[in-house]
Design brief:
The chain has 144 residues and is α+β, with helices and mostly antiparallel strands. The chain contains four helices and seven strands; from the N terminus they run H-H-E-E-E-E-E-E-H-H-E.
């Protein structure tokens, strides 16, 4: 059951991000380009950054603190051969860092629920901020 909920959380985030990229006519570029980076800005919100480096996907909102760009939150996912995303690492601010790669977090029900709840809330918060009406402020891609 935990794994099923974990996969549903990743699927919800993937569907939202792919829908957002589609709204900005960037989904084909994201899917067909080996290295991709887009930053979408909207008034009153921290920009949303979506990056793909080969099979790694990095999604984050970033804030400046003392002239340093800090992730808050940020999630790193791995894309499998079927195009499904699987969380690898997540940072949710306030020192909350979850390493998902060793699988041990799946057996820790409390930590798993916490991560799932944060990821679900963040996905909903992103949708509520209407980034599909935002502006692409930075775009980059290459196939090398």
């Amino acid at each position: 059951m935990n794994l099923l909920r974990h996969e549903q959380t990743a699927k919800n985030l993937q569907e939202y991000i792919e829908g957002l990229l589609g709204a900005h006519q960037l989904l084909d570029c994201f899917q067909q380009t080996k290295n991709f980076s887009a930053t979408i800005g909207i008034s009153g919100s921290r920009p949303l950054h979506i990056e793909r480096r080969a099979g790694k996907i990095i999604i984050g909102q970033y804030a400046y603190a003392d002239d340093e760009l800090l992730p808050d939150p940020e999630i790193i996912l791995e894309m499998d051969e079927r195009g499904r995303w699987h969380p690898q690492d997540a940072f949710f601010g306030n020192g909350i860092w979850v390493n998902c790669t060793d699988g041990s977090w799946l057996s820790n029900l409390r930590e798993h629920r916490y991560l799932r709840t944060l990821a679900d809330r963040w996905t909903k918060a992103l949708a509520d901020q209407n980034f599909e009406r935002g502006e692409v402020v930075e775009l980059w891609g290459e196939n090398e």
